[in-house]
Design a protein that fits this description.
Strand order of the largest sheet: 1-2-6-10-9-8-7
Number of helices: 4
Helix content: 25-40%
Structural class: alpha+beta
Radius of gyration: 16 Å
Number of strands: 10
Distance between the termini: 25 Å
Shape: globular
Largest sheet: 7 strands, mixed
Length: about 210
């Protein structure tokens, strides 16, 4: 198959369940390093066991008291965040050059997908110019971080559905001391994880379809 034969809108979906963070990250790197112009883009939907991840801009003072939760230094942008059960993670492995997208536009795709899902649930989500992610009132409900290599993205977003939020108090989330973090459950919304995956995937596909126009 030639590069010209690839449908820019094609998106392979992989639902991985609950998987350890570091092997998944290494798998994203390997996929990005070996992919060619004829390879379709992919979205990986999953959850992680408890882990703090520290981005390239991360500073150790933002990790306050991790306790028994591991801290992994990774190659995405941004500061420290938390992943755990009940949080829906979507990793977007996208050939940005083929879709005509810049990094900032890809971040907007991720943020826009969450805002779409929230709107469908009757919740008003918004962005902040000083901190990527999606917020409801002053509280953060979704985190965004990307890495681009060889013109292709990996990492993505994490959307708090129904999780233990206590570990966020052990860090300065995304480098912001005192930042409140919420999930859908704390907003009074009960959304099964399978339905959350379905809704988020549809929103990601819609945002990607419109992104290059």
């Amino acid at each position: 198959m030639s590069a010209a034969a690839v449908n820019d809108a094609a998106l392979i979906v992989r639902e991985l369940g609950r998987v350890a963070y570091e092997p998944t990250w290494r798998r994203m790197q390997a996929f990005t390093d070996r992919r060619g112009p004829a390879d379709s883009d992919e979205v990986w939907l999953l959850e992680h066991p408890p882990v703090f991840t520290q981005g390239l801009a991360g500073r150790s003072e933002h990790v306050l008291a991790p306790g028994d939760i591991p801290v992994v230094a990774v190659d995405r942008g941004g500061q420290v965040t938390y992943h755990g059960p009940g949080q829906l993670v979507a990793y977007l492995l996208v050939d940005l050059r083929r879709r005509g997208l810049g990094v900032r536009r890809m971040v907007s795709v991720l943020e826009g997908a969450v805002v779409r899902v929230l709107a469908d649930l009757g919740i008003s989500g918004h962005l902040r110019p000083d901190a990527p992610g999606v917020y409801v009132r002053d509280a953060k409900i979704a985190q965004v971080g990307l890495r681009v290599r060889r013109g292709c993205s990996y990492h993505g977003l994490s959307f708090n559905i129904d999780m233990d939020l206590e570990p966020f108090s052990r860090i300065n989330p995304c480098g912001h001391a005192g930042l409140e973090v919420i999930d859908l459950r704390s907003l009074g919304v009960s959304l099964p994880m399978g339905e959350a995956r379905r809704r988020l995937l549809a929103a990601v596909e819609a945002e990607l379809t419109g992104a290059g126009n």
